[in-house]
Design brief:
Layout lengths: L1 H19 L1 H4 L6 H12 L15 H23 L9 H27 L3 H11 L4 H8 L2 H6 L2 H31 L2 H39 L4 H5 L1 H15 L4 H15 L2 H29 L2 H7 L1 H26 L3 H9 L5 H14 L3 H34 L1
Length: 405
């Protein structure tokens, strides 16, 4: 119990410290996710030893559930940032990223896992699936804030936000395909078609959209009757995130996709003024969850297992970051009508984070095989490090190059 409250206290101090220095961090090659991960390493077993995850009983199960809740709240925040009236005009690049783009990132990551690490094909596909989606939590530190608003085109921020929110839910299909084949053999393919697709994805979208629409209409009706105060509106979307997550879990569906669908439906139907207020509180709540999850992740990083994997793991992680998304964007750039400069920028800034952590721990639990977590966590840690160090400088330089051309 003492360890639990120590973890809460350290995570809270991290959130407070980063909140008090957020303006400074925007101008430095350091992101809040990177610093939170660093705090976890510093206070964990490889640092000062204040946090001892082995004393918690089931630290990986705790992290997995914390990551799930964090993703649900974060994708809701992404959905609230999206001006839905712009989606039809941006449908082409968004659909290309969510369709061929996601599949290409999966194939490239899986191919690298097979070549560099010698994984069996299904294990390589599973690892590639955990690394395929971009992360709304880490990506938010790049597409939000004063610097991003000043330097990045508005439509580009919409595209990146929408992609990072939607592909976390869609990655559920990619993860479940090799996972079911590994655990159930040929019967797993039938289960994918009869349960995962219609229930895990289809029902998640329908349920989330229905909950989001119902909440927006109920809020509008309550406002019309004068039942709602300004302060009571602010908590609605946080509760909606958890409602969508819980309801989807109850029917064995994907809660992350349900939360994103709920956010989009709520966004499309709610009064714009109220939505903006909700967006602010949603961002604050998302950070309140995100940073502690990264602190916890930092304390659980498997340093000894990484060392046992040798240099091949570092080569694999670097190759994934260099090829997975940049190559995908370069291939899709002509169809997306992107300039080469834009393709390179948006290809690099597709970080991995809490989504990959969640799916890797889900696979670890289903297979009772820790190696997926060992490999995926190395790529996530390197992504948080490199993207965290290049985020602010990259946004600044990209904005400067646009203004000079």
């Amino acid at each position: 119990m003492q360890q639990l409250y120590l973890t809460i206290a350290l995570a809270a101090l991290t959130v407070i410290g980063l909140g008090l220095t957020s303006g400074i961090l925007e101008r430095l090659p350091l992101s809040a996710p990177l610093l939170a991960l660093g705090v976890g390493v510093a206070v964990g077993p490889m640092g000062m030893g204040w946090l001892r995850p082995e004393a918690w009983g089931s630290p990986y199960a705790i992290l997995q559930e914390a990551a799930r809740v964090t993703l649900a709240i974060s994708v809701m925040g992404v959905a609230l940032r999206i001006p839905t009236e712009r989606l039809p005009a941006l449908a082409r690049p968004i659909l290309l990223l969510l369709g061929p783009g996601l599949l290409l990132m999966w194939a490239i990551s899986a191919g690298l896992a097979w070549l560099a690490l010698g994984l069996a094909p299904l294990m390589a596909l599973l690892l590639g699936a955990t690394l395929a989606p971009t992360d709304p939590v880490v990506a938010a530190s790049i597409v939000t804030g004063a610097l991003a608003e000043d330097r990045l085109p508005h439509d580009s921020r919409i595209i990146l936000s929408t992609e990072s929110g939607a592909n976390d839910g869609l990655a559920y299909l990619l993860v479940m395909l090799p996972l079911l084949l590994l655990t159930e053999g040929q019967a797993g393919l039938g289960r994918l078609l009869t349960h995962t697709v219609p229930i895990g994805v289809g029902l998640a979208v329908a349920l989330g959209a229905a909950l989001g629409a119902a909440t927006a209409l109920a809020l509008h009706y309550s406002e019309h009757l004068g039942w709602v105060t300004q302060s009571s509106i602010l908590g609605v979307t946080v509760a909606l995130s958890l409602l969508a997550l819980g309801a989807a879990h109850a029917v064995q569906s994907d809660g992350i996709l349900a939360a994103f669908a709920a956010g989009l439906a709520f966004n499309a139907l709610v009064d714009r003024r109220a939505e903006i207020e909700d967006e602010n509180v949603q961002e604050a709540i998302a950070k309140l969850f995100t940073l502690p999850v990264l602190v916890l992740t930092g304390s659980l990083l498997p340093w000894q297992d990484w060392a046992a994997e040798g240099w091949g793991l570092l080569v694999f992680a670097l190759a994934v970051l260099i090829l997975r998304r940049p190559l995908t964007l370069l291939l899709l750039a002509p169809m997306m009508r992107l300039a080469r400069r834009d393709a390179l920028f948006f290809g690099w800034f597709g970080p991995m984070g809490v989504a990959a952590i969640y799916y890797a721990l889900h696979a670890r639990d289903a297979l009772q095989e820790p190696r997926i977590w060992v490999l995926a966590s190395a790529v996530v840690a390197l992504s948080v490090l490199l993207h965290g160090m290049t985020g602010s400088p990259g946004v600044y330089l990209y904005g400067r190059s646009r203004k000079t051309n």
